[in-house]
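User: Predict the structure for this protein chain, please.
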Amino acid sequence: MDPRITSRRKFLGLALGVPASAAALAACGGTTPTQTGAAGGGGNGGGDAGSTSYWFLTGQPGQGIREDTVKRFNAANASSKIAYTEFANDAYKTKIKTALGAGQGPSIIWGWGGGGLQEYVKNDQVEDLTDWFGQNDALKQKLFASSFAAATVNDKIYAMPCETVAPIVLYYNKSVFDKVGAQPPSTWTDVMNLVDRFNGAGVAPFSLGGQSRWTNMMWLEFLLDRIGGSGVFQNVFEGKSDAWSDPAVTEMLTKIQDLVKAKGFVKGFSSITADSNADQALLYTGKAAMMLHGSWTYGSMKESGGDFVTGGHLGYMNFPTVEGGKGDPSDTVGNPGQYLSISAKATDAQKEAAKKFFSTTVLDDTETQAWVKAGNVPIVNGADKNFGSGGDADFLSFVYKTASGAKNFAQSWDQALSPTQAETLLDNIAKLFQLSVTPEQWVENMNKAIGS
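Assistant: Here is the predicted structure, written as C-alpha cells:
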C-alpha cells in the first residue's frame, strides 16, 4: 500500500504519541464500511432522500476528528443532520466510483481532488461551487490559496479544500554535513557539487526508496517546476496535446539522469521500498546525507531514529532553485489538502445542508485545534498560532510557512492524473531512473498517454 495514503494525514502521529488503531490498520485492506446514523448511533449512512449522507475514510486520527465534526454540526442543526458512512481506503476507492456511476453516491464526497475530481466533473457527478465560494469569500480567504488548485477543473471550483497539508521536503543530516564541512544546497549546481563531495567521503549523497516509483516522481515534480514553472504540468493536467514536449521536460529528464549517472543516489536504490522506511534509516544513520521525501516521514524518523530528531541532527528545507529556471522558489509539491464535493444528484435540501456544513463546521476552530493536537498542519491561515513552542513546533511552523506561502502547491502527479495516465507515468519514471529509457522516448511515451 502507498504509505502516503495513511501517513500523510498523521505525519507527526508517531512523534506525538498518537496510537495506531484497529481502524488505521484496516485502512490498509479492510472492505467493510461502518455505517453511522445522523446522531452518531447505528443507522442509515447512505443516500436516501431524507438525509444528507457523507462518506469518508477510517484511520486515526482523521476518523475521530471527522466524526466529531459531523456530531458537532448535528447538535447545532437538528433539522438538517448529516449521516456518515466510514470506509477503509481501498474499499472506499472502489465503492465511491461505483456508487457515483450508478447515481447512488453520498451527498458529500470525501476525496483527494486532482485526477479523481476531474473524472467526477467530466461525468457531471459533482456540483460547481465557484459562485458559492464567490458569495463566501471569507471562507475562501480562510484557507490556503494554494489548496484550491487541486479543487479546480477548467477554472471552476468543484470541491471544498479541507483537513491538512503535507509538502515534500528536502531533509539533510546536519552531522554528516558538518563532518565534510558542507552547506545545504541552494541551487542545482550546489546539488551536483555535493554529489561529488559526499561520494568522495564515502557517503551516499541521497537516500531513495526507488522501488516504490512515486518516490522518484517527487524529484521530477520539483525539477520541472523549478525549470519551467507551474504551467508546464498544468498543460498536462488539462490534457493538451503533446504537453510533455515542452523543452523544460527534456531538461528535467536530462538533469535527473545526470544525477543518476553521477551516483547521486544510494547504491541499489531501485530495490529499496518506501514502506519499509529503509530510505529514512539511511539518512538518520548517516549512510546518506540527504533525502527528498514527504513531511509525513518526520514522525517516523523521530520514533525510530534515536536522537536524530530530538538531538537537533535533522535539517530540512524547500527544494533548491535551478539556474535560469522560470519556477518560483516558493513553489512546493505534495499533498495540498483533502477535498469535499457535493453530489450533483443530491436534493436541494441536501446541497444546502452540505454547504452549511462546509461554511460553519468544517475546519472551524475546534477541528483546526484537533488536527494540530494530532500533529498535523491544517490548511487554515493562522493555524500556526496553535503550534506553541519547543518540541515539534519548529517543524510544524516550517510546513505551515512552506504550504501557506507557496505561490503554487502542485499536487502529486500520480494523484493529479487519471489512474491510467498515472500508471504509465510511474512505469516510465522507473525506467528513467534505471536509465533504460531516453528523455526523448520518455516524452513520446507520455504524450501517447495524455487523455487516457
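Residues 114 and 416 are 4 Å apart (CA to CA).
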